[in-house]
Amino acid sequence: MTKIKVKVVRPFERYKIGDTPNLSAVKASALEKLGLVEPATKTAEKQIAQADQAKPSA
């Protein structure tokens, strides 16, 4: 599974504001929708967009 580098905007789990963890594409996508993280790089932004398209909508 691909890991995506994201920047933490709002604290969650064990991460603080400003941390840059590597998260799975699905988790990064979900957390971005909640406003907790933002992509750290342009590549990460593209990978999150691909994960959004790959997930079946519920």
Secondary structure elements and pairings:
Layout: E1 3-8, E2 22-24, H1 25-34, E3 37-39, H2 42-54
Helix pairs in contact: 1-2
Helix fraction?
Answer: 25-40%
Major sheet strand order:
2-1-3
Instruction: Please state roughly what percent of the residues sit in beta strands, choosing from under 5%, 5-15%, 15-25%, 25-35%, 35-45% or over 45%.
Output: 15-25%
Q: Over all CA atoms, what is the radius of gyration?
A: 11 Å
> How would you sum up the major sheet?
3 strands, antiparallel
| Mean of residue pLDDT values | 91
Q: Name the structural class.
A: alpha+beta
Helix and strand sequence? EEHEH
Distance between the termini: 22 Å
Overall shape: globular
How many β-strands, per DSSP?
Answer: 3
Provide a descriptive summary of the structure in words:
The chain is an alpha+beta fold and 58 residues long. The protein is 40% helix and 21% strand. The protein is built from two helices and three strands, in the order ββαβα. The protein has a three-stranded antiparallel beta sheet with strand order 2-1-3. The radius of gyration is 11 Å and the shape is globular. It starts with a strand and ends with a helix.
